[in-house]
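**Fold tokens**
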Amino acid sequence: MKQLTYFRLTLRQAMQSAQVTHLSSKGQIVIPKSIRRTHQWTSGQQFRVEETPDGILLRPLKLALFPKTTLEQAAGCLKHSYVGEAKTLEEMEAAIRQGIEAQYGRG
């Protein structure tokens, strides 16, 4: 009996929050402003469109914090920052160890 009551409440809530929109001649659907504001969606927000047995489902895509870069672009900034002979892995690990010991006083 509790499940039936819960279902009725959920259905009533869903019906109260439902809003009507329309499909334009260009195939565009307007998402109501109140929903865009609630989800903080702005112009340009991308969605993945999925077909479901009940219709369609729009899933917002998360925006990347940083633009995509190549390894060459990321490592390229290091080309001019170090002048000298290349260090071995052992030398780099020793320098890291030395820095930790100097900062925290332990080895």
The chain has four helices and two strands. The longest helix spans residues 2-17. The chain has a mean pLDDT of 81.
